Amino acid sequence: MKAIVVTDQAAGTAGMRLVERPEPSAAINDVVVEVHASGFVPTEMAWPSTWTDRVDRDRTPSIPGHELAGVVTALGYGTTGLSVGQRVFGLSDWHRDGTLAQYVAVEARNLAPLPGDIDFTVGASLPISGLTAWQGLFEHGRLQAGQSVLVHGAAGAVGTMVTQLAREFGAYVIGTGRAADRQKALDFGAQEFVDLENDALEDVGGVDLVFDVIGGDIQKWSAGLVRAGGTLVSVVGPPEARPADGLAVDFVVESDRAQLGEVVQRVRDGRLRTNIGNVATIDNAVAALSPTERRKGKTIINLRP
User: Fold this and answer.
1) What is the largest distance, in Å, between two alpha-carbon atoms of the chain?
2) Phi, psi of 241 (to 5 degrees)
3) pLDDT tops 80 at residue 295
4) Helix, coil or strand: residue 112
5) What is the model's pLDDT at position 176?
């Protein structure tokens, strides 16, 4: 099968190569999926799990990419809940070869059925962005209707999901980003926008929840904006600053079949829009995943004609 592999952490996406690899087999509780579309998160190149297994042994050359949409082609021993020929989408394990390949072996529990009216390209754009938004807002942020949410990177793949879900559940959303992101953030539902390069973040006042995808100084300044009893939620590692009278939570997104179902149902009925930027084929994936200009939306790689 065709696959993208990486061997050199220092090279980042520039070290990606398109190669031929043997097709994977299904272990206990696995399925093999014929991948039709794959999502990719640029920060994967910095994740230890891209380069080593669970006991820190080198596992290169490794196949990156962890979001997928495709069709089940084989079941491992003991696998239940899915069937051969079924359309699925979800997340592959961080420490195993990923989805930038024509086939991937993945635990069945990490996948959910993909409705027939949802395109594979759309399906592959949903798992990390949708689950990160859902878990950050509702599991870790405990969002309630009427609360205010400060969404950093509001025009990005995760930020647009956070904004839409928070609005649906009755929150007031303040988005942040660069000046060029203003209209996109507003189009996805932010009620205010803060230009982080030119506006004063403290002018926002107090908020109940900060959803941070940036870290650094932005995160430190944001901690001071969290109201008593509020929460700073981070997906970029343990917060360096904590709210004076609130919680600080960092988390790694996990696959969840029920939550994937919630996300895809909202796409089907028009409550949730995807934020897809560039779509490329596997043959052009190396160039597409090493862009020379800033990404606008999620990059999706199509593995099938």
Assistant:
1) 57
2) -125, 145
3) no
4) strand
5) 98
What is the C-alpha separation between 210 and 232, in angstroms, rounded? 5
Fill in the amino acid letter for 26.
A
pLDDT at residue 87 greater than cutoff 90: yes
Identity (one letter) of the amino acid at 138? F
The candidate with the shortest Cα–Cα distance to 212, out of 247, 260, 184, 249, is 249
Reduce the DSSP state of residue 143 to 3 states and report it. coil
Torsion sign across C-alpha atoms 289, 291, 295, 301: negative
Beta bridge partners of 195: 177
Q: Return d(Cα 124, Cα 135) in angstroms, integer.
A: 18
Polymer length in residues for the chain: 305
pLDDT at 305: 77
What are the phi and psi torsion angles at 39 (to 5°)? -100, 160
Give the DSSP letter string of 204-215.
G--EEEEEESS-
Q: How far apart are CA 254 and CA 128, in angstroms?
A: 8
Query: Would you place residue 292 in the very low, low, confident or very high pLDDT band (cuts 50, 70, 90)?
Result: confident
Please tell me the predicted confidence (pLDDT) of residue 262.
98
DSSP assignment of 227-281 equals: EEEEEEEESSSS-SS--TTSEEEE------HHHHHHHHHHHHTTS----EEEEEE
